[in-house]
Amino acid sequence: MHVKELSIRIKREAKDGRFQIATTIVFCLSIAFLVLVLGMVINDHFKKYVIYEDLSFSSLNAFPPQIFTPSQSPTQRCTQKCNTTSNRSFEEWISPKDVWHTMSDRELMWRASLVPRILDFPFNRTPKVAFMFLTRGKLPLAPLWEMFFKGNEGLFSIYLHTLPEFTYEPPESSVFYKRRIPSKLVQWGRPSMIDAERRLLANALLDFTNQRFVLLSETCIPLFNFSTIYNYLINSNQSFLSTFDDPRPIGRGRYNKRMGPAISLSDWRKGSQWFEANRELAIAIISDVEYYPIFRNHCLPPCYMDEHYLPTLVNKVCPNLTSNRTVTWTDWSEGGSHPRMFMRNDVTEEFLDRVRSGFNCTYNGEMRSICSLFARKFHPTTLQPLLRIAPKLLGFNP
Ligand SMILES: *[C@@H]1O[C@H](CO)[C@@H](O)[C@H](O)[C@H]1NC(C)=O
Ligand SMILES: *[C@@H]1O[C@H](CO)[C@@H](O)[C@H](O)[C@H]1NC(C)=O
Ligand SMILES: *[C@@H]1O[C@H](CO)[C@@H](O)[C@H](O)[C@H]1NC(C)=O
Ligand SMILES: *[C@@H]1O[C@H](CO)[C@@H](O)[C@H](O)[C@H]1NC(C)=O
Ligand SMILES: *[C@@H]1O[C@H](CO)[C@@H](O)[C@H](O)[C@H]1NC(C)=O
Ligand SMILES: *[C@@H]1O[C@H](CO)[C@@H](O)[C@H](O)[C@H]1NC(C)=O
Ligand SMILES: *[C@@H]1O[C@H](CO)[C@@H](O)[C@H](O)[C@H]1NC(C)=O
């Protein structure tokens, strides 16, 4: 009996013990399972996080931040890894090296019209002169311009508006290398001419280091060396956009009553197409959405937009920004609708000297004998005599 009781108690205790072991094992297993599941979840999250960073970093490398699209979120998620990248993109942003882009004209004008409200530059800003060439193809007088620009890197930028089908690229050593902007067809005397000028201005405005903007044609030549022209423009407190009231039929006669009331006959002005603008005036020009449509609709031949739109616009919007004269000399003395074209035999030292210093004009409120910095129209055959005379007369570094 005593033994029987004992054996039963032992059996029961063994049963209880087994039960306890079983519950412990089940408990441990469920904890392990939980830990495993939790671990997997955390691990998964961690992996996702790491991969996201890697992706954003490698995608930054593969596709450098586009300067013409708003910055994407990966740049904002930058940590130390892409610190240099974001620095580079700031420099790229204030002074884009690549002038090519895929913006439409509307997008381009809007972007170029953005103006900083903090006037102190957070970088060393050496003001540059933007030379904007309106040309059909290759610049016929390019070797003269190459000579002109040589040794003045960092003080100028070049923009070329060409025929859209012109795709020639000069050698890398040329100042014109990769300076073509996205261009469209231009017809003389038509609104497309103004569109091209605005396109040049807007592209040049994207570089915040550009301070002065000169429009030049393929027949233009410089009349002085680079430093003289640079100082003349940079130090001038006004722009050089010619605007005057011409009472003749080829002036006021081209005014159309349907332009009123926005533009009255007393607002109407005429002037040379070849202008020079400071940043403020350039922004005023590309930002105009009020007068441009009126001109496009009502300034039709014999009214030519390139002779009236900018002179009238400036007179309406910011008359004090311009000196009312151009710095590009043209010989209209023979009359007619086209100025004189100079040929090979016309180019002599005496002739160039006369154009350089045969006039008086005001500059920053004082009389000066340097009035024109550029001259046109020079036929491609003038290149040889110009190259021969230039080093001596214009003080170019040969
Ligand atoms: C970026 O680099 C500059 C110095 O090159 C350093 O002072 C700055 O703390 C860095 N910024 C970040 C977010 O790492
Ligand atoms: C960042 O850009 C500034 C000029 O904007 C330059 O002086 C500086 O050296 C650059 N820093 C790095 C780390 O590239
Ligand atoms: C440019 O021309 C001016 C006046 O003719 C002269 O004083 C100056 O030394 C020239 N500059 C260079 C860099 O040749
Ligand atoms: C523009 O200049 C004239 C004098 O030439 C001056 O009377 C006028 O106040 C100026 N206007 C502005 C907006 O600066
Ligand atoms: C230029 O002409 C406008 C009128 O068209 C006049 O208000 C302005 O004072 C002139 N500027 C200079 C410098 O003569
Ligand atoms: C320019 O002004 C100077 C000095 O006032 C004078 O001697 C010269 O004849 C003038 N030149 C012209 C082309 O008017
Ligand atoms: C340009 O500077 C001259 C000389 O300091 C001054 O007489 C003239 O009023 C200034 N013009 C403008 C538009 O600031």
TrEMBL record:
UniProt keyword Transmembrane present: yes
Keywords: Glycoprotein, Glycosyltransferase, Membrane, Transferase, Transmembrane, Transmembrane helix
A single cellular component GO annotation: membrane
Listed transmembrane segments: 21-42
Localization annotation: Membrane
Origin superkingdom: Eukaryota
Keyword Transport: no
Membrane topology value: Single-pass type II membrane protein
Molecular functions per Gene Ontology: glycosyltransferase activity
Protein name: Uncharacterized protein
Organism: Erythranthe guttata
